[in-house]
From TrEMBL:
It comes from the Eukaryota. GO terms for cellular component: plasma membrane. This is Olfactory receptor. CDD domains: 7tmA_OR4-like (cd15226). It comes from Cebus imitator (Panamanian white-faced capuchin). Keywords: Cell membrane, Disulfide bond, G-protein coupled receptor, Membrane, Olfaction, Receptor, Sensory transduction, Transducer, Transmembrane, Transmembrane helix.
Length: 348
């Protein structure tokens, strides 16, 4: 029995001329790919139901964990501080990062032909770079917040005012938008006239550009340079910021800096988890596709699911606020009362 699903998909090609596009872009007549075939994580039929179950549970955990942090921060007045305001925004972006491709990946586990339209493919490229670019800059903003809190504590609330926090969030989205627009500019006008199989579970830009009918070596270098510049510059800013903070923490008394160390551990862990895969993919762009798949799953699935765990595991304030939230909405017997009322209404 043939276990591969890849040979079952035949994507239509829209003929817009009498000739196929040659290596030169001087010709205007060419055949145009109207959709791409996503090869997914595995071509094995037997693994599809198992992967569907696993990633459905993981995606549900991402939604519950991150929305729980957003709800906790917004509902508890003690958490209405710059650090938690930025944390809630990070959770929102994590939901976005996990949602741009994961629902389609989960749905594709149930079908044989994993196709995506050309426009939907461009949309995935747009959103992945928008969300990941915004998250990079937001992580830098969170590092700046910790720098001010630890190195300039007396001026913290003055410097990190509500207005400044909103501006930092808006800047992160603006930089993400500029980044993704520049990435799309390299791709949107590329001619696609033949190969249409993307060896991933979403339209990963470096893989899509390789399918163009022209030599994309220069375009690929520009894409890597663009993403690499944003990744490395953000990472270097974070390294400098946390180095200064750690030196400051080390020179002060352990009693006053105990909470700061705990917070810093969470921040540095999240930064390492997020930037590790991104830097590996874009600074080492010639790695094998199988490694790229693993890393793509890591930053689209596991980083968004680990962030809520990391930030709440050693944070007493968040855990206390979550306990209050639980006692407010899930009082003893309240759930059973709601269930009884629903059943009573249904039997009427």
């Amino acid at each position: 029995m043939h276990n591969s699903l890849t040979d079952l998909c035949f994507s239509p090609i829209q003929v817009t001329g009498t000739k196929s596009l040659p290596k030169s872009m001087n010709e205007t007549n060419y055949s145009r790919v109207t959709e791409f075939v996503l090869l997914g994580l595995s071509s094995s039929r037997e693994l599809q139901p198992f992967l569907f179950l696993i990633f459905s549970l993981l995606y549900l955990a991402i939604l519950l964990g991150n929305f729980l942090i957003i709800l906790t921060v917004t509902s508890d007045s003690r958490l209405h501080t710059p650090m938690y305001f930025l944390l809630a925004n990070l959770s929102f972006i994590d939901v976005c990062v996990a949602s741009f491709a994961t629902p389609k990946m989960i749905a594709d586990f149930l079908v044989e032909c994993k196709t995506i339209s050309f426009d939907a493919c461009l949309a995935q490229i747009f959103f992945v770079h928008l969300f990941t670019g915004s998250e990079m800059v937001l992580l830098v903003s969170m590092a700046y917040d910790r720098y001010v809190a630890i190195c300039k504590p007396l001026h913290y609330m003055t410097i990190m005012s509500r207005r400044v926090c909103v501006v930092l969030v808006l800047i992160s989205w603006f930089v993400g938008f500029i980044h993704t627009t520049s990435q799309l500019a390299f791709t949107v006008n590329l001619p696609f006239c033949g190969p249409n199989k993307v060896d991933s579970f979403f339209c990963d830009l470096p893989l899509v550009t390789k399918l163009a009918c022209i030599d994309t070596y220069i375009v690929s270098l520009l894409i890597v340079a663009d993403s690499g510049f944003l990744s490395l510059s953000s990472f270097l800013l974070l390294v400098v910021s946390y180095t200064v903070i750690l030196v400051t923490v080390r020179t002060r008394s352990s009693a006053s800096m105990a909470k700061a160390r705990s917070t810093l551990t969470a921040h540095i862990t999240v930064v390492s988890l997020f930037f590790g895969p991104c830097i590996f993919i874009y600074v080492w762009p010639f790695s094998s596709y199988s490694i790229d798949k693993v890393l793509a799953v890591f930053y689209t699935i596991f980083t968004p699911i680990l962030n809520p765990v990391i930030y709440t595991l050693r944070n007493k304030e968040v855990k206390s606020a979550m306990s209050k939230l639980k006692s407010r909405y899930l009082k003893p017997g309240q759930v059973s009362v709601v269930i009884r009322n629903v059943l009573f209404l249904e039997t009427k």
